[in-house]
Fold:
Amino acid sequence: MQILFINGSPKGDISFTNQYINYISKNFSHIRIKKIDLSKKYRLLENTQSDFKKTLVNQIKESDGIVWAFPVYFFSVPAQYKFFIEYLIKDRELLSLLKAKYTTYILTSMNVGDNLAADYMRHLMYRLEMKFYEGISFHMFDMLTEQRSLISKFFTRFISVIEKDLIKQTPSPNIFYQEKPEFKIDLKSNNAGKKNKTFKYILVSSNSCDDSNLKSIIRAFISSSKYEIVEINLDKSIIFPCKGHINCVYNEDCLIKDCYQDVFSNEILSSDVIVFATSIVADHIHYRMKMFMDRIMPVAHHPVFHDKHFVGILSGKTRHVQYINQFFQLFSEQLFLKQPTGLITTDGRDNNDIEAQINWVHDELKCHLQNSFHRLQTFLGKATHKMVRDELYNIRFLFKSSHNFYKKHKLYDFPQKDTGARFRRYLFSLIFLVPFLRKRVMRNITKFMIKPFSKHTGI
Ligand SMILES: Cc1cc2nc3c(=O)[nH]c(=O)nc-3n(C[C@H](O)[C@H](O)[C@H](O)COP(=O)(O)O)c2cc1C
Structure:
């Protein structure tokens, strides 16, 4: 039996993900384990005659199962892996080789948004009509704990599923392919003259080459805005992908030198509204948009955009999957500390719908900006804050920049630091030890809990 691991970590051999592959290689010596380090070579695929393409084709052909192994970068796959997926979806030879082959995924992360990355993989495997065995998500340090035993158990089961040919069906691919409508959006600007400069809008766009809809939505969004909007077109900017070396987390200094730093410091950080406008390709955001997002890494662990508002414009099919909306929700809730002000989507919409969405988002933004209003974080943002806070506290010597931000903005809000709450907990623990008092409190517990509200409600 031969299993091919497609490693998507930009760090290749020295990646955490690769350690999980090495562990499996060591413990399953009776199985031929092959590995392709994709992130370093993905660009070679642009030459269809390249040796890399030939190796990829041969290894897929010879393998009984494919394992997608990758680190979670911003709740999804790294941009380089996304490039590969976009390539794959268009390559008939690779598609036919993968069809009906057994597959699974192994991902490593800090478990923030790993469910969304897993959802994407699951969806993609179905789309590729592969025989998909549910994968597994490891915290990057799980191998150093008793969870390590799950690596072998998982892989043993995967092998046995292949040997016994236990998966008989793959879902119908028809649901994935539908004609894309062409929109003709004609929003006349009420502010054709001078634009207001009170608030600064930045629109970062990433357009897969044939997406005329995105272009016309962006044009309409910009022309109908009361405020001036600066567009940063990623298709025309040279920005390199994150290589995952995380030197940047100490002092926000990225080792890659390109125009990203300029755009980030001079445009993004000084804006009031950030709009990400992207084509949806291969069922997720375009790889250039992902590249831009991955580069936010130096400041990704703290809510660097807490004083800004976020809007997403998504051109393409999004209704058949949950994870794309959640991806933007989580992005906004983690980095902006609030829900997105709006998500403009094209899937299932007509011209009128889109124009209405654009007008609505402009109006909503005006309200949010002028009244300092926003919708609060939900589970996504609040749970993420607690996870990141705890991780950060443990590795604060490395993540110095985020650590300083956390101290400055009092984000180390561990419950044990709240002395008032500690005193109340102590008091109530004592009260609950006395049966008579405990009964009394329990009898009135609901009334008791809303008592402090009367000061504000007047009731
Ligand atoms: C650009 C970047 C983005 C990341 N985004 C996430 C994330 O969204 N959620 C998470 O849990 N970990 C995130 N991480 C942490 C990695 O997923 C984690 O460290 C992973 O194990 C690295 O694997 P590797 O060494 O194989 O590349 C991110 C790391 C980088 C460099």
Summary: Residues 351-371 form the longest helix (21 residues).
